[in-house]
Write a structure and sequence with these properties.
The protein is α/β, with parallel strands linked by helices and about 325 residues long. About 35% of the residues lie in helices and about 15% in strands. The chain folds into two domains: about 140 residues, NAD(P)-binding Rossmann-like Domain (Rossmann fold); about 180 residues, NAD(P)-binding Rossmann-like Domain (Rossmann fold), CATH 3.40.50.720. A seven-stranded parallel beta sheet has the order 8-7-6-9-10-11-12, with helices on both faces. Strands 2-1-3-4-5 form a five-stranded parallel beta sheet. Strand 9, helix 11 and strand 10 form a beta-alpha-beta unit. The structure holds nicotinamide-adenine-dinucleotide. Nicotinamide-adenine-dinucleotide binds next to helix 8. One of its GO terms (cellular component) is cytosol.
Length: about 325
């Protein structure tokens, strides 16, 4: 059986390591840029024959669109592994991959520190309501309409989704004197909890001073925070989202920011990226970043290397190093 590899999109830091895979794979194909239509027709015409594993780069969704059933059907039957660069993989239809016997990997762990750093940056920025000051000083107005902010010390931080990034946020927030509570699908072992308190979803909403979203997006978590949930929260709560935009009903967040239920928010992700709700752009009490949680040289290189390690392991030993959790119970079937 031929074991070739396909790279979709560009590599920024690991070109040399990709080329070295030539010693492991039968052939290296590349689809550096283009449109979904071009990709589908090339693939159907047999341009990627014999690919066994593919590397889906960080920005390749703009060239192929989502990895859905249509796209999977156009790829050769020989494809058995999709190695995705990113901790979030909501643009891959994992159940459809599982059905076709394709194993999928993502890049957890490598993203934890950089994304948690951005969560803290946004949290501190939101606690200080920093946006008006950032704007005033650049406009030559010195402090402008300066108002006092809040300390993180002694505030209750609620973490929704205590996985890799959530745990890294908890570690950092503890150093700022925050009290940590969390809600997860499953309670962690006490060793992994590191002193954080496990609470129900409703308790988390009702008792947190700051809420950080760190869970993955899937059909059951879309709009997990909406009008009803805001109503259950403490008045003056601070919301931080570095996970995925559609976890929050953005229109409900805009209303909650306007009526003071939410004191301020720090957001790296949005419901319809790169479009941002006009109510968020206009609100002074929001700190905005353009989805740049992992945007550091070190983390980007680590992520690219982890994808290549997955690809190499797939080709050499039919195993992924960081297979997505949804497939783990089905792993024997893959
Ligand atoms: N802003 C960025 O640049 C950036 C970077 C990396 C990751 N992310 C996002 O952050 C998310 C988290 O990443 P991670 O590596 O920590 O993932 P992870 O899989 O390690 O952790 C996710 C956690 O969420 C929990 N969870 C899932 N559904 C839940 C629910 N309904 N209620 C409560 N908890 C639930 C899971 O049990 C898990 O512990 C990713 O899915 C990704 O979308 C964003």
């Amino acid at each position: 059986m031929t074991r070739s590899a396909l790279l979709i999109g560009a590599l920024t830091h690991t070109r040399k390591e990709w080329e070295q895979l030539g010693g492991v794979a039968d052939k290296l194909y590349e689809y550096p840029s283009g449109t979904r239509e071009e990709f589908l027709s090339k693939s159907k015409a047999g341009a990627f024959e014999g690919i066994y594993a593919l590397y889906r780069s960080n920005d390749s969704n703009k060239y192929t669109g989502n990895f859905d059933e249509e796209l999977l059907d156009a790829l050769p039957e020989s494809l058995k592994f999709i190695c995705h660069n990113g901790a979030g993989y909501d643009n891959i239809d994992v159940p459809a991959c599982t059905k076709r016997g394709i194993a999928v990997s993502s890049t957890p762990i490598a993203v934890d520190d950089a994304t948690a750093d951005v969560a803290m940056f946004l949290m501190l920025g939101a606690l200080r309501n920093i946006t008006p000051s950032f704007q005033a000083v650049r406009q030559g107005k010195w402090r402008g309409n300066f108002a006092l902010g809040h300390d993180p010390k002694n505030k209750v931080l609620g973490i929704l989704g205590m996985g890799g990034i959530g745990s890294a946020v908890a570690q950092r927030a503890k150093a700022f004197g925050m009290k940590i509570q969390y809600h997860n699908r499953k309670q962690l072992s006490s060793e992994k909890e590191e002193g954080a308190k496990y609470v129900t979803f409703d308790e988390l909403l009702a008792t947190s001073d700051v809420l950080s979203l760190n869970l993955s997006l899937n059909p059951s978590t879309r709009h997990i925070i909406g009008k009803q949930e805001f109503e259950k929260m403490k008045d003056g709560i601070i919301i931080v989202n570095t996970a995925r935009g559609p976890l929050i009903d953005e229109a409900a967040l805009v209303d909650a920011l306007k009526n003071g239920k939410v004191w301020s928010a720090g957001l790296d992700v949005f419901e319809e990226e790169p479009k941002i709700h006009s109510g968020l752009l206009e609100a002074e009490n929001v700190v905005l970043l353009p989805h740049m949680g992992t945007a550091t040289y070190e983390t980007q290189r680590d992520m690219e290397l982890l994808v290549l390690d997955n690809l190499k392991s797939a080709i050499q030993s039919d195993k992924l190093l960081t297979q997505v959790p949804e497939q783990k119970k089905d792993a024997a079937k893959i």
